[in-house]
Design brief:
alpha/beta; six-stranded mixed beta sheet
Length: 232
């Protein structure tokens, strides 16, 4: 991993904005579950003054909005919901905590993109006592209300083998699509190095990194839909 993520997992968004839905009269409902890469509110003390996926240069360049554009180009207007679960990551071992994100469950998504896990390392002292994989599976099941919901689960941008393996385990055991990203986090071309003074912000995905994440997540969804001969 190049550098170290020093952006705090706590307080990435205010509790009132853990979940924000955008209703466009679409025929498909897409839930994005993530952390600062998915959305981070302004935090001037670390040089981040925007309200979208850190460290994209504009809202339309972050992974969520690039993925929304790709999906709308393919399927027409969609409704989507952005959910920051950074607080859940560092407190994943707390039973029932996920209920604080009930509005994301109530969104009743057809497709769920789960791009999360890096901040679990901040609770690494809990991993031996509270295995991450069952908690992650429980969290996804909480959001997956619809019977035929499609779930795309990504690996980590910054490589952390123990947590990455847990994510792969959840994908394999539950038949979710899995997308690997760690090669992006090992290549400075995909990071915002030099664009922000704060080291933690600058190792987040730049516009190209965000594009690659969106491409891989959406491509995995399309491939699995084709293979299952299903329709979104």
């Amino acid at each position: 991993m190049i550098g170290k993520n020093t952006v705090r997992a706590s307080g990435q968004v205010t509790k009132e904005r853990y979940v924000e839905a955008f209703e466009n009269g679409g025929s498909i409902r897409v839930l994005f579950v993530g952390n600062s890469i998915t959305r981070h509110e302004p935090k001037p003390e670390i040089g981040w003054n925007n309200d979208w996926g850190m460290a994209a240069s504009s809202k339309d360049k972050d992974y969520v909005h690039v993925a929304v554009k790709m999906l709308e180009d393919a399927y027409g207007k969609i409704d989507y919901c952005i959910t920051n679960c950074g607080e859940w990551e560092i407190n994943y071992f707390q039973s029932g905590l996920i209920c604080e994100w009930q509005r994301a469950r109530d969104f009743n998504a057809d497709i769920i993109f789960v791009r999360i896990g890096e901040n679990v390392w901040n609770a690494k002292d809990k991993l031996d006592q509270f295995a991450f994989a069952p908690r992650l599976a429980e969290m996804i099941r909480y959001f997956a209300v619809r019977q035929n919901v499609k779930v795309v689960l990504s690996g980590l941008f910054w490589d952390m083998p123990e947590i990455e393996q847990s994510i792969k385990q959840v994908a394999f055991e539950n038949g979710f699509d899995f997308v690997e990203l760690k090669d992006l986090g090992e290549d400075s071309r995909y990071m915002a190095i030099g664009q922000y003074w704060h080291s933690g912000v600058s190792i987040h995905p730049n516009d190209l990194g965000m594009l690659k994440i969106a491409e891989r997540m959406v491509s995995s969804l399309r491939l699995s839909t084709q293979n299952n001969k299903g329709q979104i």
